[in-house]
Design brief:
Layout (H helix, E strand, L loop, with lengths): L3 E4 L9 H16 L3 E6 L9 H14 L5 E4 L4 H13 L3 E4 L3 H13 L15 H9 L5 E4 L15 E6 L3 E6 L7 E3 L8 H10 L4 E5 L3 H13 L6 E5 L2 E2 L15 H6 L4 H10 L12 H7 L10 E2 L2 H14 L2 H10 L4 H11 L13 H5 L10 H13 L9 H13 L4 H12 L7 H16 L2
Helix pairs in contact: 1-9, 1-10, 3-6, 9-11, 12-13, 15-16, 15-17
Length: about 450
Amino acid sequence: MTVTVRFAPSPTGHLHIGNLRTALFNWLFARREGGRFVLRFDDTDAERSRREYADMIETDLGWIGITPDLTVRQSERLALYEAAAAKLRERGLLYACYETADELDRKRKRLAARNLPPVYGRDALRLTEAEREAYAAEGRRPHWRFLLPNFGDDPFSPTRTDIHWDDIIRGPQTVDLASLSDPVLVREDGSFLYTLPSIVDDGELGVTHVIRGDDHVTNTGVQAAIFEALGLAVPRFGHHNLLTALGGEGLSKRTGALSLRSLRKAGYEPMAVASLAVLVGLSGSIEAMPDLASLGTRLDFADVSASASKFDPAELDRLNAEIVHGLDYPTVAERLAAMGVPQDRAKPFWDAVRGNCAKVADAAQWVPVVFGDGFSAPNLSEDEQALVRAARDLLPAGAIDAGTWHAWTGAVKEATGRKGKALFMPLRLAITGVDHGPELAALLPLIGRERLLARLG
């Protein structure tokens, strides 16, 4: 058996970090098992689904390093779902219901007033042919519910019917079908809700494992029953904990909270985002992993927390800085060129500044400091100006190289008696204009003698 998983986003907004968690759990599991990863766009909601969102989802996944083995769109597979619905109708397992949303809401409220669970009572099964014709004459169009197998001979007397499965993340799970309403599979306008197309696709595409958020645990019992009703193999299920924002609120594609698009535009590295998306809520430390293969070695379903995990942007900043500090020059060459860094000095420039960059884009602030001609020196005290003038006269002759800073400051220290911060800070301010930054030993050869002398007055 070839392990086959699927990631099934609805193209109704941008992917957020919680969506990425699901995608990566599937991707890493499939790669570890030598299996297939299917990207399925659940785009049957024609009103809200947009092709531009689907394109962006593919871009986001590609940025992370996830490339599907197969991509399908439910909007192109409607005939399969129609055939499945017809099969269920023929077997009496999909029945027409005519209640309006308001009528259903009133029924739920009446049940709540009697301290009863809000389970649909299958009233539509009691309708006579004449009553159905009367509803049709009123212009009512039915929605269609799946008849759950939770009864013996009388559908109006459901009995406890446990669906068991060994969840590959949460362990043994049980759902009682008698505690649930018959699910609506087809809307009044004939369009499909999520459930039926998903099951049909999982069966037709040979999906062996469904790995998704734990907000779908209860749905699993219903879906297992529909798989069996259609004669399809029931896949193994795994439900991981969800990510929330720091305040505990859920993430949403439509609000754009922590979207991959916004994180990419903000300059975060893909492996920083991927590392945190997977490792938050797992036992062990959260560390920046160098690639997806390494991240896959950290993913152990037994380590996944049972409760929701909060996504802390400060953790993302920390991981990103770790990754940036370790990036080699070829990885950032194009980005440095876009900042205007001269190609012949780009590698030593990056080696000099990367330790001071939380994002690659932070290197841009050091471009004018190193290569700029219109340098504006800060206000120095008379005493500091005197030190700078003395230092100018003591600048060693010859080419400026990695050893110049040490030799130069040694000479200034001996001539002036200055040491420590009193020596180094005025020089740093005069040379760079800021009181912090990369080691000057690495910057001086890039700044060059001409610019250096000009800045020293």
